[in-house]
Design brief:
Blueprint: H1 2-34, E1 38-44, E2 47-54, E3 56-58, E4 63-64, E5 71-72, H2 77-90, H3 117-121, H4 130-134, H5 145-152, H6 169-183, H7 187-196, E6 205-206, E7 220-222, E8 229-231, E9 246-248, H8 250-261, H9 268-275, E10 289-291, E11 301-308, E12 311-318, E13 323-329, H10 336-347, H11 354-357
Length: 359
C-alpha cells in the first residue's frame, strides 16, 4: 500500500512539475523574444496554479521583478469603481436607471438630466471624450476631480445617450464623484472599507505621483524605431481618479477576482448583472467586457485590460471552467492578450502554440 502511494505521489509531482515547466516555457519565450518584463498568475477558481515574476523593475538599478512586485493597474481600477457603484445599488442608495444628476446636482454639463448611471458604466453617456483628443495633456498638470470633470467631462453631448458605447475615462470619473457624493466619504475610504480591508488586499490602493510605494516597479516605453526602452513621459496618475489610478499585485487582484466570482462582494444576482453583456453596446459589461469566446479562448469569459505608455495589464476570467489569468507588465513591448492565450492552453492541459508564433 505504501509503495502504491509513493508511486501516486511521484506521478502527481511529475504532472505538476510538467505543468510548471510548460508555463515557464511560455514566460521565458515572451521574456526572451517579446521583451516581456512583469508578473504572471494563473489560477483555477481562486487556487494558484502558477505564479512568477521576470525581468527588470528599474533599469537604472537593474532591480529584478518578483512575483509580489506592485504595478500600476490603470483601467482595471474601473472594475473596483463598478463594484462600489453596484454595492450602493444593492443597498438601495442608487438607481442604475436614474439620471446621474440625481446624485451629482452640481454637475454643470448637459448630461446631468439625460445620462443614467447605467450609461456611465457602459461608456454610452455620449459625453465627448475630450481627454483622448488631448492625449497626455490632461494628465500632466495636477487637478482636483471637480476641476477635471468641469473642464473635460461637461461638454454638450455628442449623440443620444445609450445608443453607442464609446470608451471614455470621464464616465468612470463621474462615477467616482457619485460614490463620494452618496457616501459622504472619499473614494479612497470607500475602497478601503468595502473592498481592500475585507479582502485583506494589503498591496493594493490608490496612487499619487508623489507617493513612495516600496516594491512598485517603474515603467518603460519601447521606441518602435530603435526597439530601445525609454522612461515613460511624466504624468499625474491621480488625474485618472476612479478610472485608472490604482496599483496592485497579481496575487491581490486574484483575491478581488475570487471575491467577485464567489459572490463575496456582491450578491449572485448583482454579480450576474455586472458581467452580463450589453449586446447592443459591443458586449460591454460593467467594468469588464464580455466575450462568447475569442481566438484560443473557446469559452465565455470576461476581461479587463489596462494600459498607458509602459504600464500594461491584462485580466481574464473564464466563466465555464473558472480560470483566472492575470498578467502585469512594466513595458509597452509585449502583447499581453496573446501571452494570456498561451497560458490558457497550458491551464487546460493542452500544448502551447508558441512554435507557430516562432514561424
Amino acid at each position: 500500500m505504501r509503495k502504491i502511494l509513493s508511486i501516486i505521489t511521484l506521478l502527481v509531482f511529475q504532472f505538476g512539475f510538467t505543468q510548471t515547466e510548460k508555463y515557464t516555457e511560455v514566460v521565458n519565450y515572451y521574456h526572451s523574444q517579446k521583451n516581456f518584463n512583469g508578473t504572471v498568475l494563473v489560477a483555477t477558481n481562486g487556487k494558484i496554479d502558477f505564479l512568477t515574476g521576470t525581468g527588470i523593475a528599474n533599469r537604472q538599478h537593474n532591480n529584478t521583478i518578483k512575483a509580489d512586485s506592485k504595478f500600476k493597474i490603470l483601467s482595471i481600477t474601473k472594475t473596483f469603481t463598478a463594484v462600489l457603484i453596484l454595492q450602493l445599488y444593492q443597498e438601495g442608495k442608487l438607481d442604475l436607471k436614474a439620471t446621474f444628476g440625481t446624485y451629482f446636482p452640481k454637475y454643470k454639463g448637459e448630461a446631468k438630466d439625460k445620462v443614467t448611471i447605467e450609461n456611465l458604466l457602459t461608456y454610452s453617456s455620449a459625453i465627448p471624450n475630450l481627454a483622448e483628443k488631448l492625449q497626455l495633456k490632461t494628465y500632466q498638470l495636477p487637478l482636483s476631480i471637480d476641476d477635471y470633470i468641469d473642464t473635460y467631462c461637461s461638454n454638450k453631448l455628442d449623440t443620444i445617450p445609450g445608443k453607442k458605447s464609446a470608451y471614455n475615462n470621464g464616465d468612470y470619473m463621474i462615477l467616482h464623484k457619485i460614490i463620494e457624493n452618496i457616501t459622504g466619504k472619499s473614494f479612497e475610504k470607500n475602497l478601503e472599507e468595502k473592498i481592500l480591508k475585507p479582502l485583506q488586499m494589503q498591496n493594493t490602493n490608490m496612487l499619487k505621483s508623489t507617493d513612495i510605494i516600496p516594491g512598485l516597479v517603474d515603467s518603460y516605453t519601447m521606441d518602435e524605431k530603435t526597439n530601445e526602452f525609454k522612461n515613460d513621459e511624466p504624468y499625474y496618475i491621480e488625474n485618472f481618479f476612479g478610472s485608472g489610478s490604482m496599483y496592485s499585485t497579481v496575487e491581490d487582484l486574484l483575491k478581488f477576482d475570487t471575491a467577485i466570482f464567489n459572490y463575496k462582494l456582491l450578491s449572485k444576482k448583482t454579480t450576474e448583472l455586472m458581467i452580463a453583456p450589453n449586446r447592443s453596446l459591443d458586449n460591454v459589461a460593467f467594468g469588464f467586457w464580455f466575450a462568447d469566446g475569442y481566438g484560443i479562448f473557446n469559452t465565455k469569459f470576461v476581461y479587463r485590460p489596462g494600459g498607458i505608455l509602459g504600464s500594461n495589464t491584462n485580466w481574464i476570467r473564464t466563466l465555464e471552467n473558472d480560470k483566472s489569468i492575470i498578467v502585469f507588465s512594466n513595458t509597452s513591448a509585449t502583447n499581453l492578450y496573446e501571452m494570456s492565450e498561451q497560458l490558457y492552453l497550458i491551464s487546460k492541459g493542452e500544448k502551447s502554440t508558441i512554435s507557430d508564433l516562432k514561424k
